Amino acid sequence: MKTILSAIDVKVEDMPSWGSKIAQAVPYGTTLLMEGDMGAGKTTLTKSIVEAMGCDDVVSSPTFSLVNQYLTRDGRSIYHFDFYRIDDIEEAYDMGCEEYFYSGATCIVEWGEKASELLPDDSWVVRIVKKENSRNIELICP
Known about the structure:
The protein is an alpha/beta fold and 142 residues long. The protein is 23% helix and 31% strand.
């Protein structure tokens, strides 16, 4: 694993610019794992990444639906997963998440550690460490 981008003490209001930097660095079709504690900013950063990838859709956390699909202006799909509520890996299998991961579309996964055995080996990672008034952010590629 190799760190591509790294930032220390990113203010919450500056997270959208980091979403844009991440979107520029990550090739379309990548599975991107968002790592961080509750409230670290995974969904906030995801919104910025999706927007920077050319999507005008409203981005919201798929906590209850487990997956949302967004379309970019040029018709490409982005799938946004939130596995926070997954208690058993079978739930992820049952929703067919492997088909999404290997579809060639970009997949952004929050709480991916709950379904780690299903995730592609070549997944990239965004690690967010929450501090009192800022965040440390790292983009890591395989």
